[in-house]
Amino acid sequence: MTANGNNQTKMVGKQSILFQNAPYIIATASVAGKKESEGPLGSLFDIVNEDPMFGQNSWEEAESELMKEAAEKVIMKAGLANSDIRYLVGGDLLGQLIATSFGIAELKIPVLGIYGACSTMGEAMSIGAMLVDGGYADRVLAITSSHFAGAEKQFRFPLDYGNQRPYSATWTVTGSGAVIITGEDKKISNPAEADVVIKGITTGKIVDYGIKDSMNMGAAMAPAAFETIKQNLEDFGLQPSYYDRIITGDLGDVGSKILIDLLLEAGHDISKNHMDCGVEIFDKEKQDTHAGGSGCGCSAITFAGYIYRKLKTREWNRVLFLPTGALLSQVSFNEGKTVPGIAHAVMVEAK
């Protein structure tokens, strides 16, 4: 796996970067709600709050609180102070990123607010890795969040309306996941565990297959995931088997099947090593979540609580972490626009 051109370039192929000094992920933290704690991964989350309001007066304030808890927890786990973090890169699903701006304001960390819908964790980790590898930051905190009630209120229907959900619908995860990314000189070594690095990234393009159904986000995002995975394999000259897992963010049952079919048509079989965070996070038979989980927090807390542990113990050595996002808004939906998708791939490896 080599970069194109001279030895100094970091650009690979059409959309990828191979880091010369792969940044380290030194700590992760996950904060989840009650429903998430009752799923298959529930015991792996750092903090579980059974109060959906998180002690606050509104759903939006609740999401800000859970993001603040995730940020404080990851800084504590890394043995750092807020002042040790050069940049915080993060965002959420709410209008103008209000969960982020209100949630982390009191931390007094320089902030780059970003929006990639449910792909935000992949975008945040990508930007954080570029900042560290480029020498613009020594430590970056990448973070995102979502809240079931806040997302339903903004994108679908108020909870009091009691609408029925089709089987293609996913359940927005209440949770916030955070990671700290550093250079090698700032890493924390534990001889009993593997170091975890971000080897490279493939930045996604906006892909629009004309889907207009806001209750079928998996179908809207699957084409974007397909394009990014295919580009990652082509840019780096890899086969799907290079990765122990190719992990999408929240395609759910419907989107995962579409993704596998699209890649098979392109000559890539990921059926044996594909995993979707939205499928893993809930038990759809017992928890009535239909197609699975979704939201920024879905991939974020699955990475922080589950995927990172698998890499630290070397049960997995290489994963392609691919949060997926549906780029709709209240305005675009009400105006009858389609739902474009995007997916950002992060190559995370045990070293």
Structural commentary:
This protein is of the alpha/beta class. The protein has two domains: 18-185, 3-Layer(aba) Sandwich (Peroxisomal Thiolase, Chain A, domain 1); 195-350, Stage V sporulation protein AD (Peroxisomal Thiolase, Chain A, domain 1, 3-Layer(aba) Sandwich), CATH 3.40.47.40. The chain is built from eleven helices and 17 strands. It has helices at 34-37, 59-77, 98-103, 120-133, 148-155, 217-236, 252-265, 277-280, 284-287, 296-312, 330-334; strands spanning 11-12, 16-18, 24-33, 47-49, 87-91, 111-113, 139-146, 171-172, 175-182, 196-202, 245-248, 274-276, 293-294, 318-322, 324-326, 341-343, 345-350. The strands form four sheets. It has a seven-stranded mixed beta sheet, with helices on both faces. Strands 4-3-9-7-5-6 form a six-stranded mixed beta sheet, sandwiched between helices. It has a two-stranded parallel ribbon with strand order 8-13. Strand 5, helix 3 (98-103) and strand 6 (111-113) form a beta-alpha-beta unit. Helix 6 (217-236) runs parallel beside helix 7. The chain is globular.
